[in-house]
Write a structure and sequence with these properties.
- Helix 1 packs parallel to helix 13, helix 4 packs across helix 13 and helix 11 packs across helix 12.
- Strands 1, 2, 3, 11, 12, 13, 14 and 25 form an eight-stranded mixed beta sheet that branches.
- By secondary structure, this protein is α/β, with parallel strands linked by helices.
- It is built from 13 helices and 25 strands.
- It has two domains: 331 residues, FAD/NAD(P)-binding domain; 183 residues, Glucose Oxidase, domain 3, CATH 3.30.560.
Length: 538
């Protein structure tokens, strides 16, 4: 086996949202040698940087792993595309750019599960240290960090009208979703800088690559961990068809995400023995929770036709409109080309018994069948509602020991009575929103799920299965847990239970999903992980 040249203290697997931050922080000491391995390539494509490029990057094998779910019973047998970033910066290079921490109660719940150091008051300093926030330094936000956050650089009258409709429903208008309680209506803040996407690669990895003690290897597929005497001592990877290995004196840190980290662990013989042994994989550690506890936000993408007001659909099909969009972006870095997939957010409760906001609306001034498809030819908006605190749990597992074979992803959406009820109530809430007086001048007409769908629970739950789709937030497949938790994969310091010198620092460690978009919480996990690694090393 050929050893890669160089001697390393830490090996970071994955240069996505988390890996870029971990590598940056660990390499601040010039005496610490860090190797970061990324299966994707460089972000040298224009659509990684122009915000609206997500329309071209998602569903493109250049930038997306092109995973699919298993046929989902809760979605009436449908299989969904399951995008994951295949580039430095990972999903932060192709995602929605929405800056969203979730709710303080999410992290306080983690602490209640026995995870010391994960209450909201504990993680808030790590959120702040990451940030360079346009609102400036405050009790809620930080400045000077690598994670640039700005206000959106465009507005739409139709979205203002939807916001007014939400207020008519009694939902309060708030200027900032990231103060601990995100219940309300407002415009999302975005990970952009002057109209360009600001990924983890741009904010953390590229500045750190100027350091001679940090080495990045792109387009390498990590096949397995090297475990000797119960310790992770390195990794084996494939580069250009050649099998290589690298060794770490201190630790190996997995940052390949809720899908990728599980694939690597399984190929390494770490996971449920009854899953791995039939694949001919020697079991190194029978760890029941590796690949279980998958959670994701399922959204019901309701679409409403409108009239008498502008949407992106008709601009898209106008040569003049597209030309003006391009000019606005070139000369002012403003306009529709700076759009995140969703601009207006609404956090509310699906019914009055809920103790906190449990559904999130992503409202878009456009409509299409799915990402990668053209926009509809009629004026319309999309009003997607997702369950923020799902109770369904799924699995991720490899199909074989072959490193480049896509895994089996089974989110198990709408598997519980509670999730089906929330989905039905979310569609009812959508209909109530669209029937408010503020929207009456624009004559919203339900296109999906459609006026033929009744208002009873059974009809609405079936409709949710017909129109539901992932919002690309897989978490939880290598969960943090207390010592008495049989599903726990890592402890509260993200150390792998049963294998020394191995940590996981990505979205897979979340014991329960956060109440909002998951990219910013993943960045916080990486920031906190790096701090703990450096602290433990001392």
């Amino acid at each position: 086996m050929k050893r890669i040249e160089g001697d390393f203290d830490y090996i970071v697997v994955g240069a996505g949202t988390a890996g870029c931050i971990v590598a940056n922080r660990l390499s601040t000491n010039p005496k610490t040698r860090v190797l970061i391995l990324e299966a994707g390539g460089n972000d040298n494509w224009i659509w990684y940087h122009i915000p609206v490029g997500y329309l071209f990057a998602i569903g493109n094998p250049r930038s997306d792993w092109m995973f699919r779910t298993e046929p989902e019973p809760g979605l009436n047998g449908r299989s969904l595309a399951y995008p994951r970033g295949k580039v430095i910066g990972g999903c932060s290079s192709i995602n929605a750019m929405i800056s969203m921490r979730g709710q303080a109660a999410d992290y306080d719940h983690w602490r209640q599960l026995g995870l010391a150091g994960w209450a909201y008051s504990d993680v808030l300093p790590h959120f702040k240290r990451l940030e360079d926030h346009f609102l400036g330094e405050s009790e809620h936000h930080g400045t000077g960090g690598g994670w640039r956050i700005e206000a959106p650089r465009l507005s739409w009258d139709i979205l203002d009208a939807v916001g007014a409709a939400a207020e008519q429903m009694g939902i309060v208008k708030i200027p900032d979703f990231n103060t601990g309680d995100n219940e309300g209506v407002g415009y999302f803040h975005v990970n952009q800088k002057r109209g360009r996407r600001w990924s983890s690669a741009r904010g953390f990895l590229k500045p750190a690559l100027r350091r001679p003690n940090l080495r990045l290897e792109k387009e390498v597929l990590v096949d397995r961990l090297i475990v000797e005497n119960g310790r992770a001592v390195g990794v084996r990877f494939i580069r250009g068809g050649e099998i290589l290995e690298a060794r770490a004196k201190c630790e190996v840190i997995l940052c390949a995400g809720a899908i990728g980290s599980v694939q690597l662990l399984h190929r390494s013989g770490i996971g449920p023995a009854d899953w791995l042994a039939p694949l001919g994989i020697d079991v190194v550690l029978d760890r029941h929770g590796v690949g279980r506890n998958l959670q994701d936000h399922l959204q019901q993408r309701a679409i409403y036709k409108v009239s008498g007001i502008r949407t992106l659909n008709e601009i898209y099909y106008s040569l003049i409109g597209r030309g003006l969009m391009g000019l606005d972006y070139v000369f002012r870095r403003r306009g529709p080309l700076t759009m995140a997939p969703s601009q207006l957010g609404i956090f509310t409760r699906s019914d009055a018994t809920r103790g906190r906001a449990n559904i999130q609306f992503h409202v878009q001034p456009l409509s299409l069948d799915k990402f990668g498809d053209p926009l509809h030819t009629f004026p319309a908006i999309t009003v997607s509602a997702c369950n923020l605190q799902p109770t369904s749990r799924g699995t991720v597992r490899i199909r074989s020991a072959t490193p480049d074979e896509a895994p089996s992803i089974a989110p198990n959406y709408l598997a519980t009575d509670e999730d089906r009820q929330v989905a039905a109530d979310a569609i009812r809430t959508t209909r109530r929103l669209m029937n408010q007086k503020a929207l009456a001048p624009y004559h919203p007409a339900e296109f999906l799920p459609g006026p033929s769908v009744g208002d009873d629970d059974a009809s609405l739950a079936k409709a949710a299965g017909d129109i539901g789709t992932t919002i690309f937030h897989p978490v939880g497949t290598a969960k943090m847990g207390a010592a008495n938790d049989p599903m726990a994969v890592v402890d509260e310091r993200l150390r792998f239970r049963g294998i020394a010198r191995l940590r996981v620092a990505d979205a897979s460690v979340m014991p329960t999903i956060t109440s909002g978009n998951t990219n910013t919480p993943t960045a916080m996990i990486a920031e906190k992980a790096a701090a703990m690694i450096l602290e433990d090393a001392r």
